[in-house]
Specification:
about 30% helix; 7-stranded antiparallel sheet; two-stranded antiparallel sheet
């Protein structure tokens, strides 16, 4: 996957794990919804032709796209089962880039740590990736999901772990985020995220 970046910013690539579906940042196509419904049915143990599965896939895809598409260049979602098979998990991956003018990578890391901690973020720490140093930030957000045919909204706690990675040329910050509303399997989501972050490569 190549992140679609604006002119003047350095591009980067990521190797997404199997099972993710790219979600267009515009209108959802029927093909994307069908693929999401198939994966959701498999992960959630439902009939693939069940209308509730399609509604769920569409609602989840729309919710993720609607909440996150404003400022990102890439979005993908995946439906999985927990390691013990007891719970369904939906994971979203988003990518964007930010212009930067850092003289060196370590200066950018120090600045990122300071900015996020000044914003009140408690879970902020430096990490070392194959592409170089980065800063990881964990955030938590409370939302509601409404599905057709149901009167009551479903409360959601969306957690995200985001890697802010400065490029060695001092022009760009890669911002890659992995999020899920499955708090019971948060350790597994973080493991997936760290593996994904470690595949980041800057274009020449």
């Amino acid at each position: 996957m190549t992140s679609a970046l604006s002119s003047g910013q350095r591009e980067y690539t990521l190797d997404l794990p199997p099972g993710f579906i790219e979600i267009p940042l515009g209108e959802l196509s029927s093909d994307v919804i069908e693929r999401a419904a198939t994966q959701a049915a498999t992960a959630f143990g439902l009939s693939q032709g069940d209308q509730h599965t399609r509604n769920l896939a569409f609602a989840l895809s729309s919710a993720v796209a609607g909440e996150l598409a404003n400022d990102i260049s890439y979005l993908a979602i995946g439906f999985f089962r927990s390691h013990d098979g007891a719970r369904p998990i939906m994971v979203a991956i988003t990518c964007l880039s930010r212009p930067s003018q850092h003289e060196e990578v370590q200066a950018a890391i120090s600045g990122l740590l300071e900015v996020h901690r000044d914003q009140g973020q408690e879970s902020v720490w430096p990490i070392q990736l194959s592409s170089g140093p980065a800063v990881a930030v964990v955030t938590e957000e409370f939302n509601e999901l409404t599905i057709d045919g149901q009167q009551d909204a479903i409360p959601l706690i969306q957690r995200a772990v985001t890697a802010w990675t400065p490029d060695p040329d001092g022009t760009t910050l890669a911002v890659v985020s992995v999020s899920s509303n499955n708090w019971q399997d948060w350790d597994s989501v973080c493991e997936l995220a760290l593996d994904l972050f470690d595949t980041l490569e800057w274009a020449p």
